[in-house]
Design a protein that fits this description.
- The complex is a heterodimer of chains A (249) and B (357).
- Chain A has helices spanning 3-36, 42-54, 57-68, 73-80, 90-114, 118-126, 131-142, 144-159, 163-169, 179-188, 192-216, 231-239.
- With 249 residues, chain A is mainly alpha-helical.
- Chain A has a single domain (3-239), classed as MetI-like fold.
- In chain A, helix 5 (90-114) packs antiparallel against helix 8 (144-159) and helix 6 (118-126) crosses helix 7.
- Chain A is globular and about 65 Å long.
- The two termini of chain A are 20 Å apart.
- Chain B is an alpha+beta fold and 357 residues long.
- Helix content of chain B is 21%, strand content 38%.
- Chain B has eight helices and 21 strands.
- Chain B has a six-stranded mixed β-sheet, sandwiched between helices. In chain B, strands 2-1-4-5-6 form a five-stranded antiparallel β-sheet, with helices on one face.
- In chain B, helix 2 runs parallel beside helix 4 (134-146) and helix 4 (134-146) runs parallel beside helix 5 (164-181).
- The longest helix of chain B is centred in the middle third of the chain and has 18 residues, at 164-181.
- The two termini of chain B are 28 Å apart.
- The chains are: A mainly alpha (249), B alpha+beta (357).
- The interface between A and B is medium-sized, with 23 and 29 residues.
């Protein structure tokens, strides 16, 4: 592999790592709220989170481009804050990735949180645990399989993203030229050997990640009596959708 | 005193309760399923947001008028439910430690090692909760609740999920708990045998309202309550094992005021306090002491009141033996023949005495 390709690999890993971190920080409280709330806003919030599942990435990318562009409200805000413009920057890609991969993190977490029995949280409350304490000492440990699924899917899905990257980030080496775009370039240029190297690498990566996930999240025998969706269930739901045209594996 | 004044609308009923419970001993909330006893206990714990006031002695946990509502985790309670609700991600030891670690060392009054010993779960500490039997789970849940050194222990049908054998396994622990720790308990149950065995104070609930409340013996002997009807109707007597007759394997149980009953020797130490359960169907009345009867237990008493039983052939008679109430179920013909009326002196003959050890 040449230097440009290594650069694409490193950039992809950085993008996916940072996006996953932000997704977990934002997605965990959001998923907890969605799992526990009886608010009338819940269907609306859940639908917004799920939008990237049904929208073509180009649509999302297009509106993000408008929002973050020089005339868009987000763009005006970032310029006013002295952050410059987000489109065609690494930061812009991170913002887009976080939005685009949100359902892959929030949905497994939400399902895992919903499976935490209310009576265990109540038991913790009667044992002097405050709301924060209950979340960290009971809910989060019990939702561990969902957390793992969310992390892996968030990371893997960001790695595999193409349409949004192209719309927001373009193809700037070292800034926005991630693996999926690099493969596209190689194919356009009929460099099939190069394309193969990267594409096969991604197939192997995806397979390894999923096998690891399914093995680690295998329900343990003594926990099986509990009403907990299996790791396979939570992982399979977002994967089962049809891929969008033009999307990398 | 535990003072409760709570209102909470429910689908099937309106919980509307004004109640004072003693701050010592076991208070039972008793009634059929869906009568509101669990809801009342949850409201007392703060798990349910009812309207009204909850005060435990000087501490006010809820007072809507003053805008006070102490959240569950700041109330010094222990709470045990039917399903035990152990944390599946922690082993038994860490389950038990969960509450204790959240209480300041200076506020810990219950010696947890002693409790673990008392509940007979020392050999389970390293186990995962999924491998425990129902009775073991329940005992672990009780130890966990006691780890916070609660000032009030709330138990919601802790034995209901257990079969008779497991129940018999846990019950003695509950009694020892009360005897050794002296923590007031509010105990929800729909099983009269558990209540008869454990409770000192009895609250009868129906449709979200209090039908009757008072000392166990008084409430159980009242003829105007649903507890007076049915095969299990009867009274509970506090007694002391005074003397044993080795030849006939019998023991004498003193009821106080010079009255006593003989029953099978339970093998307990002399001087020990025991509870005796005397069912209404096992009590008969006569105007003079019998000498030619196979029934050896005869006590002098005075009719207090009478009431119809559910079957028109039967009548219920409450007799005072000294201060102790005993209920007899007779045919109306017998009652008529004896010319029973309030104030009439009678002899109470007790055929069977069940010991609640």
């Amino acid at each position: 592999m040449d230097a440009a390709e290594w650069q694409a690999v490193r950039l992809t890993a950085e993008l996916a790592g940072l996006s996953t971190l932000l997704l977990l920080l934002l997605g965990t409280p959001l998923a907890w709220w969605l799992a526990r709330t009886r608010s009338a806003l819940k269907p609306v919030a859940a639908s917004l989170v799920a939008m990237p599942l049904v929208l073509p990435p180009t649509v999302l990318g297009f509106y993000l481009l408008l929002l973050m562009g020089p005339q868009g409200p987000v763009g005006q805000l970032t310029q006013w804050l002295g952050l410059g413009r987000l489109p065609f920057t690494f930061a812009g890609l991170v913002v887009a990735s976080v939005l685009y991969s949100m359902p892959f993190v929030v949905q497994p977490l939400q399902q895992a949180f919903e499976a935490v029995p209310e009576r265990l949280l109540e038991a913790a409350a009667t044992l002097r645990a405050s709301a924060w304490d209950r979340f960290f000492s009971v809910a989060l440990p019990l939702a561990r399989p969902g957390l793992l699924t969310a992390t892996v899917l968030g990371f893997a899905h960001t790695v595999g993203e193409f349409g949004v990257v192209l719309m927001i980030g373009g193809n700037i080496p070292g800034a926005t030229r991630v693996l999926s775009v690099a493969i596209y370039d190689h194919v356009e240029a009929s460099e099939f050997a190069h394309a193969h190297r990267l594409a096969a690498g991604m197939v192997v990566f995806a397979m390894a990640v999923l096998v690891t996930l399914y093995v680690v999240n295998r329900p343990r025998r003594e926990l099986r009596t509990r009403a907990q969706p299996s790791a396979l269930g939570t992982a399979a739901a977002p994967i089962a959708r049809a891929p969008h045209p033009g999307e990398a594996p | 005193m535990i003072e409760l004044a709570l209102r909470l609308p429910r689908d099937a009923f309106m919980l509307d309760v004004q109640l004072s419970l003693p701050s010592r001993g076991v208070s039972a909330l008793f009634g059929p399923s869906g009568c509101g006893k669990t809801t009342l206990l949850r409201a007392l714990a703060g798990l349910e947001r009812a309207a009204g006031r909850v005060a435990i002695g000087e501490q006010v946990w809820q007072d809507d008028a003053a805008g006070v509502f102490v959240p569950v985790h700041r109330r010094p309670i222990g709470y045990v439910i039917q399903e035990a609700a152990l944390f599946p991600h922690l082993d038994v030891r860490r389950n038990i430690d969960y509450g204790r670690r959240r209480v300041a060392a200076s506020a810990q009054r219950v010696a947890l090692d002693g409790v673990i010993e008392l509940l007979g779960i020392a050999h389970l500490l390293q186990r995962r909760t999924g491998t425990l039997s129902g009775g073991e789970r329940q005992r672990v849940a009780i130890a966990r609740a006691l780890g916070t050194s609660p000032g009030l222990l709330l138990m919601d049908e802790p034995l209901a999920a257990l079969d008779a054998q497991r129940k018999a396994e846990v019950l003695p622990y509950l009694e020892r708990l009360h005897a050794e720790l002296d923590i007031p308990v509010v105990y929800v149950s729909h099983a009269i045998d558990e209540v008869a065995r454990l409770a000192h104070h009895l609250v009868l609930l129906a449709q979200g309202r209090v039908l009757a409340a008072g000392p166990l013996a008084e409430v159980m002997s009242r003829l105007d309550l649903p507890t007076a009807h049915g095969e299990a109707a009867g009274v509970v007597l506090e007694a002391r094992l005074a003397e044993r007759d080795a030849q006939w394997q019998l023991a004498r149980f003193d009821l106080g005021e010079g009255h006593a009953l003989w029953a099978r020797d339970p093998g307990l130490a002399t001087g020990r306090a025991v509870r005796l359960r005397v069912l209404a169907r096992d009590v008969s009345l006569s105007l003079s002491p019998h000498s030619g009867s196979s029934i050896g237990n005869q006590l002098p008493g005075q009719v207090q009141d009478m009431a119809d039983d559910t079957h028109p052939a039967l009548t219920l008679v409450r007799v005072r033996v000294g201060r102790v109430p005993v209920v007899a179920r007779l045919t109306r013909r017998s009652a008529h023949a004896l010319q029973l009326a309030p104030g009439r002196p009678v002899w109470v003959q007790v055929k069977t005495v069940a010991l609640l050890p």
